[in-house]
Every structure is written in C-alpha cells, then in structure tokens.
Design brief:
The structure is a single chain. It is built from 16 helices and 29 strands. The chain is of the alpha+beta class. The strands form 9 sheets. Strands 1, 2, 12, 13, 14, 15 and 29 form a 7-stranded mixed β-sheet that branches. A hairpin with a 5-residue loop joins strand 14 (289-296) and strand 15. Helix 2 packs parallel to helix 16 (576-590) and helix 6 (152-162) crosses helix 16 (576-590). The longest helix has 17 residues, at 479-495. Residues 1-33 have low confidence and may be disordered.
Length: 613
C-alpha cells in the first residue's frame, strides 16, 4: 500500500532510498483509498504516543495521524528539546495550534491565549515539563463522578509504569524513602533537582525555606506520600542528555525504531471526520466507527484510513470534542444548527470544560542572583546568554538543562479544605509576556487555584464548523473562584516577607504599588486584568458523561477517546502526568490487561478541618 508516510520508504527488502528521495515520495505518494489497520489513533500527543507504543507492543497494527511536524531533525528543533527554551514554541505557530478563547466576561472581556501542541509529542513537546500527578483524593473523587476503577490505588501502578525516575544523584531504591511511589523503569524520564549543589539557582532554596518560615511543611516529593507543602518539583527532562522528555521521546520514537512494520505514521495530516458504517446506522444499532477521512496538509489530498477494531481520538480537550461534533456526535440540536448531520445524540460533548487560572506575583531582587543575565536580551549580558547556550548544546548541562520550575508548593487556602487547592510555581526571574525576561534581577511566583467551580464549553463555530472551535473556559464566573484567587495571592505575598527572603526582596513589581493586596476590589481588578491560563484545558468528554470508564463513546461502537478530555474533573496540579497515566491504563485495558491495585498511604493534614497550615 502507498501512504503519505515516509516510513514506507523503508518497508522493503531493498536498501532504502536516500533521505531526499524519501521526502519527494512523501510529498507525491497517493494514499490507498482504504488503508486498514487494527487501530487508527488520532493525535500524536501525550496520550496518542502512549497508545501507539503500547498497542504495537502487543502486536496490533496502528495508523497514527498527526497534524504537526517532527519534533527533531529540523533547524529549530532545539526550541523543543532545550528545557529552558520552553517559551519559544508557546509563543508562535510553528509547533502550536495557537488558539485563543472567546472574550471572557470574568476577565474584563479579554481573550486568553491557549497554546496546544501541533507537533510529534503534542503539548508534551511545548509544555513547561512540570511532572505533577495530583493528589490521591482527586482520583477518589473521579470514582464518585462516574469513573469506576479510577481510584488512587488503581492509578498509582500506571504512574509508576510510565515513570523512569532519574535523580541528579544516583540513588538505589532501598535508600529512597519515596520508592513505593516512584517508578524507575518506565520510558518517561523524570528528573528532580534535589540535594546540595544540584540546584541551578539559590533562590529555589530560599523559596522552600520561606515556606518553612511561614509554617508549612517541607516535603521530599510532592508526587509521593505528601503533596501538601514546599519542595522540589519533578520535571520531564532526561538528566542523561539534558533534553525534554516528551511523549514522543519516551514512547513514539522508540516504537517507530522498533516496530515500523506495525506503526504507520501520518504527519502533517488533519482529520476531517470519523466515518461510521452506514449499515450500522440503518439497523438502529449503535453507529460503528470504521475509519476516518484525512487531508494531507502539504498536498491537499483527501484519503481514508480504516480500522478493523477501533478509532481512538487523542486530540486533546479541544480537538477531541471538536472532531466528535464535526462527525455528528454531540448535542443533536446544536449540530443541526451548525449544519452537521447528527449521528449520536450526546449533549455533554464539549461541555464541562475546566482550566486552571494563574497570575504572576513579581518582585525585584536586591541580590544579583536571578536569571536576568542569562535570559534577557541585553548587549551587556549577551556573552552570558551565549555561554549557557553553548554549554547545553555541547554537554546538555547547566541552566538550559532546567525548565526553571525546580521548586514550588501545594497549600490549602483555608481551614476546612481537605487537600491543597493552591499551587505555586517559583521562577528566579520575572517573565514579561511569553518570551522576554525583565532586564532586572527579580523573581516571581505563579499563583493558581486548583479546583475552580466555573465550567465552560468547547462549541462549533457556526460560521465555520470545521475551523477553530469556540473555546470558552468561563473563567471566574463564580464568587467562590474570585475569593479563592484572592486568598492565593495574599498567601503568596506573605512568603516574600519571611526571614528567608530578607536581603533578597526589593520592591513589588507586579502588581504595582497602586494595588492594595488587602483590598478585595483592588485584588479582583488586578486578577481580572492580568491573569492567564495555565494551559490545562480538560474534561470536555468526561468519563461518566460522554465516555464510559474505558474511554468508549456512549451510544457508539468502535469509537474511543483517550486524552485529558475524559477526566471527570481536573486533578490538583499540572495535567501531563495524569494524561500519560490514563493512556497507559486504557492501553492495558484494550489489550485485556490490568496491573494489580497498589494500596499506598497518602497524607492529609491531621487537623485540616480547623487549621489552614
């Protein structure tokens, strides 16, 4: 069969043609009208890479479709692979869908940027690489929300299966107090900068000490027994190379190297619709998905890929509901109004959209110890910027081998909150926009709440249903969310006035001196004018509502969704680690396997009902 994949250049007993000819073949080959695989997986992002790897590992054939490009082998691939360069791909369209929300009433009518990965690895190739699993009680809540079999004991084995923990200093499992919670043999390389001499900036230690000074616990691993407190943040960086460990690096490229005969990769290819068997629709049975209609974005050629077993959507919280609706799966009346013929009436598709909202508290620093000389574009410090870049290119070490989120915190906003509902990321520099660093020494705390009560939606654009969907997170729509954000800001500001920050904290840069943090109206105004997304869109095809506990679309056959959209509610933290976990778990389910539950204890504050810390 001929396909658009360059991989077919090697599927022969003859020596492969030279690379330039492979490129020509990729651009000119005519896809077979109905190329058939066991599974068609849509989206080579965090979940799609896991599925492609694990399903072919079990001997199945998989066609993997991705609209973006390769994440390696291009002149600008370093912007994906260098951890410190994380903002480059977030700020433009090279590897990014570059979405924006609808104007947000709760944010003074502002539209908010929503970057999504458009590249091998998806958003795991452009995210901030912070590896956070969430709190154990998040998964216990999932069970109550309709996701049977997704309790903490059920999910922990799959976090461990995915993780290949690499501390900066080698340590044996027996010497690791968190060994019961960590995975060491998984493909996803995870690093943490812990121990004397491993941190890339002294301000990280200052921040953790400030937490202790304020009366919070210092924790060794926020992904282990105790999330609540201040401590090192794990990152998806391979400590052996100093490079980002995206899902493409961890799962997809190894699978392509080992099982090319089973994995058919279609890059720069979009999916127009899911194809349903017309006979199944006539019979009144659940419509069966049998394939997809695709378009090669380089040639404009339209072709079909068919699945013997299942079509699996792993397009993310925006892409998966968008494709379902364009394929006739959604609210029947809304689809008809958009000119889409309904196939499965599923009113909750695209609903229940959730996201984390953040603000940056920024302070100038008295000591010249921040990232400013290495990150700001100034002639005065150009040599410093060049030096750390060269070190990374030659050795994979130094400042550029860190995402600069080496520490953070999870705390509770008030008494009566059972587990952390506030997250702080700390950076030893002041970021202005997405690409620039303030040309002064400073530091900032990313302040975000973890379980907002506002709910939004992904809907079709009536003027162009196949174009970018309407993304409405409905930020700060409830009084509770505004109140929680006020508390988060004030608790963060308290930290910079502790003993640990003496000699470091200068003036507050953002918000400016005109904002009184003790005045509710001032804080609300600043938050509504200055906040932005943490890029954690999720929950738009939720288990218990749109799909069952295995990701199978209700009311359809042969159709599954596996990505962050099927979370019933957001986990308390960054979402990449939970997304990879759920893909590992469902991949096992598809293969008829299941890891035994792993019952490990987890921490809740002994007096959480009466004490905030």
């Amino acid at each position: 069969k001929a396909t658009v994949s360059v991989l077919n250049c090697a599927r022969t007993s003859h020596p492969p043609p030279p690379p330039f000819l492979c490129t020509m073949l990729r651009r000119t080959a005519t896809p077979a009208a109905k190329a058939v695989s066991d599974y068609v997986v849509l989206g080579a992002g965090s979940a799609g890479c896991v599925l492609a790897s694990r399903l072919t590992e079990g001997g199945a054939t998989v066609a993997l479709v991705e609209a973006g490009k390769k994440d390696v082998g291009r002149w600008d691939s370093w912007t994906v692979q260098m951890p410190a360069a994380l903002t480059y791909s977030v700020a433009d369209e090279r590897y990014n869908w570059n979405y924006w929300t609808t104007p947000q009433a709760g944010l003074k009518g502002r539209a908010v940027h929503q970057p999504r990965g458009k590249v091998m690895g998806g958003s795991s190739s452009i995210n901030a690489m912070v590896y956070v699993r969430g709190h154990a009680l998040d998964f216990e809540r999932w069970v109550k929300e309709g996701a049977a079999g997704w309790g903490y004991d059920d999910c922990l084995p799959y976090f461990k299966k995915a993780q290949g923990y690499l501390g900066i200093h080698e340590r044996t499992r027996a010497a690791d107090p968190e060994s019961a919670y960590r995975g060491y043999e998984g493909p996803l390389r995870v690093t943490s900068y812990v121990g004397a001499g491993t941190r890339t900036n002294e301000l990280f230690n200052v921040f953790e000490q400030a937490g202790e000074d304020a009366g919070y616990d210092k924790v060794a691993d926020t992904n282990g027994f105790q999330q609540e407190g201040f401590g090192p943040f794990d990152m998806t960086v391979d400590a052996r190379t100093g490079q980002r460990c995206s899902a493409a690096a961890a799962y997809l490229r190894p699978a392509l190297a080992a099982r090319r005969d089973l994995l058919d990769m279609h890059l720069t290819t979009s999916v127009r619709r899911v194809i349903f068997d017309p006979e199944s629709i006539k019979d009144g049975a659940p419509p069966r998905a049998i394939g997809v209609e695709c378009e090669n974005l380089q040639t404009g050629e339209v072709f079909e890929l068919h699945a013997r077993k299942e079509v699996i959507l792993s397009l993310g919280a925006v892409g998966s509901p968008h494709l379902l609706m364009n394929s006739g799966v959604g609210d029947k009346a809304a689809l008809a109004a958009a000119g889409v013929a309904p196939v499965v009436d599923s009113p909750d598709v695209g609903q229940n959209l959730q996201d984390h909202l953040e603000v940056y508290l920024q302070y100038l620093c008295k000591k010249p110890v921040s990232l400013y000389p290495y990150a700001a574009w100034t002639l005065r410090h150009l040599h410093s910027r060049v030096r750390v870049g060269v070190e990374w290119f030659l050795r994979g070490t130094g400042i550029c081998a860190s995402n600069q989120f080496e520490t953070g915190a999870f705390i509770r906003s008030d008494k009566g909150v059972a587990h952390p509902d506030i997250q702080y990321h700390f950076i030893p520099g002041c970021v202005v926009g997405q690409l620039d660093v303030l040309p002064h020494h400073g530091f900032q705390i990313h302040v975000g709440t973890l379980r907002p009560t506002s709910r939004g939606a992904i809907t079709l654009n009536p003027a162009d249903p196949r174009g970018a969907p309407l993304i409405d997170p409905n930020f700060l729509a409830t009084a509770r969310d505004a109140e929680d954000m006020r508390k988060a800001v004030r608790l963060a500001d308290e930290l910079v006035h502790t003993k640990a920050f003496e000699g470091y904290t200068d003036t507050r840069y953002a918000p400016g001196a005109d904002v009184d943090l003790n005045n509710d109206a001032d804080v609300d105004e600043w938050v509504r004018n200055s906040s932005h997304s943490a890029y954690h869109l999720s929950c738009t095809c939720a288990m218990g509502r749109v799909v069952d506990a295995e990701g199978r679309v209700k009311g359809a056959a042969g159709l599954r969704v596996v990505d962050a959209s099927i979370m019933p509610s957001m986990t308390s933290g960054n979402l990449n680690a939970p997304t990879i976990m759920l893909a590992e778990k469902i991949a096992d389910s598809i293969r008829g396997q299941r890891l035994a539950p792993d019952a490990q204890a987890f921490y809740t504050h002994p007096d959480w009902e009466n004490a905030q810390r």
